[in-house]
# Entry
Amino acid sequence: MVLLLAIGGFFAGKVFAAAPGDGASMGRSVSASEQTCRACHAIDTTRVGPPFRAISDRYRGDPDAVAKLERSMLQGSSGKWNTGAQMPPNDISAADAERFARWILGIK
Ligand code: HEC
# Structure
């Protein structure tokens, strides 16, 4: 976890700099949990995990998208994206998971 936070800190500011419009940050303030996302995710490039824009594209039009993405963040995910990696369960609240899901799905 310490390592992930360190990596997140390293990428902070760069990874999400390409976010469109007001989506520059995933929330009003940059939380520690958001920093950990950045260790593995960027908007347009595959890092450990898939690009957020690709996630948004895949789930666009899926009425259950928010619930599915929330579940993946809270319980972890593997085998869906063929990145050769898996996402461990993230230590975030359900409210944060929903906020992140809506933010990701808002990327065009
Ligand atoms: C240790 C690296 C890592 C961290 C940290 C991480 N992810 Fe992931 N994430 C991944 C990988 C790898 C996948 C692809 C999993 C798969 O193939 O099913 C993924 C997939 C996802 C998906 C798509 C899930 C699906 O059902 O299609 C979302 C949404 C997501 N991550 C959001 C987040 C958010 C938000 C955070 C921070 C709270 C986060 N991730 C933190 C590695 C990570």
Notes: The domain at 2-105 is CATH 1.10.760.10 (Cytochrome Bc1 Complex; Chain D, domain 2). DSSP finds five helices and no strands in the chain.
